[in-house]
Write a structure and sequence with these properties.
With 58 residues, this protein is mainly α. 90% of the residues lie in helices and 0% in strands. The protein is built from 2 helices and no strands. Helix 1 (2-26) runs antiparallel to helix 2 (29-55).
Length: 58
């Protein structure tokens, strides 16, 4: 399950970055903001997974 979450985080980060760059390139502020939000969502998901890994017993 954790691998799925990590992959989803990476996908959200990548998709958000693409939207952010494309939105900035074409001057679409809405798309750029949506990209920033999606990228942040991916960052938060990744941080959550790292925290879960840090407290997981070994």
């Amino acid at each position: 399950m954790a691998a799925d979450e990590k992959a989803q985080a990476k996908g959200e980060q990548a998709q958000g970055k693409v939207k952010k760059v494309v939105g900035g390139a074409v001057g679409n502020e809405s798309m750029e903001a949506e990209g920033r939000a999606e990228e942040s969502k991916g960052d938060l998901r990744q941080a959550k997974e790292k925290a879960k890994d840090a407290i997981k017993p070994k």
